[in-house]
Design goal:
By secondary structure, the chain is an alpha+beta fold. The protein has helices spanning 2-8, 43-53, 71-83, 100-110, 131-140, 149-167, and strands at residues 28-34, 54-65, 112-121, 124-127, 168-169, 172-175, 178-186. It has a single domain, classed as Vaccinia Virus protein VP39 (Rossmann fold, 3-Layer(aba) Sandwich). It contains six helices and seven strands, in the order αβαβααββααβββ. The strands form two sheets. It has a four-stranded mixed sheet with strand order 1-2-7-3. A three-stranded antiparallel sheet has the order 4-6-5. Strand 1 (28-34), helix 2 (43-53) and strand 2 form a beta-alpha-beta unit.
Length: 187
């Protein structure tokens, strides 16, 4: 995404940095984030760093996973791991999915005026028969300890079998995405 932005807008500098350790102070008119902040498990540090990087009246606009995001999938991963007596540690859950109240409270603690907050369902098609399996391999693997291939396949097959009725429609898996959108203004 950064490469595409640099190609389209070569006169604007783009950087990839740790959201919890931004060093710019009062530099930016706006900070925008899409589908990133649910990977940042230290939201207070990220919000403070974003706040500090903005000029007065600067805007922070973000969309990311909200409370309940992919809950059907992750709950089934946990359930099947438990049935196979596989260890599961909550710290292995790779995401931070807050409610609006939780996140806007953190925004206000960082100094933002939370001028907009919205949570909504965004059912997302995962095209193709193997897409749920691919999604788990890509995003949910940290929830499952290293397993021998036969055990891993058994786990995945049972997850697919249990979710098929509720999540497989017209040849597509429909992931139960829930999103939060926020806008904060640095005062």
């Amino acid at each position: 995404m950064i490469q595409q932005a640099q190609n389209k807008y070569p006169h604007i500098p783009f950087h990839v940095e740790d959201a919890t350790a931004l060093t710019d102070k009062n530099q930016f008119d706006a900070v925008f984030s899409n589908a990133t902040l649910h990977w940042v498990k230290q939201p207070e540090q990220a919000l403070q760093a974003i706040y500090n990087s903005l000029k007065t009246n600067g805007r922070f606009v973000a969309e990311f996973g909200a409370k309940g995001n992919v809950a059907k999938i992750t709950n089934e991963i946990k359930a099947q791991a438990g049935k196979l007596n596989l260890p599961y540690a909550e710290e292995k859950f790779p995401w931070y999915f807050p409610s609006i109240g939780e996140y806007t409270t953190l925004m206000e603690k960082a100094g933002f005026h939370a001028s907009f907050a919205q949570a909504f369902d965004r059912p997302t098609p995962l095209k193709g028969k193997d897409r749920l399996r691919n999604w788990i391999n890509m995003f949910g693997q940290s929830m499952i300890p290293n397993l021998a291939e036969p055990t891993y396949l058994q786990l995945i097959q049972q997850i697919e079998a249990n979710l098929q009725r509720s999540m497989y429609k017209n040849g597509h898996w429909i992931a139960d995405y829930k999103r939060i959108r926020v806008i904060g203004i640095k005062q």
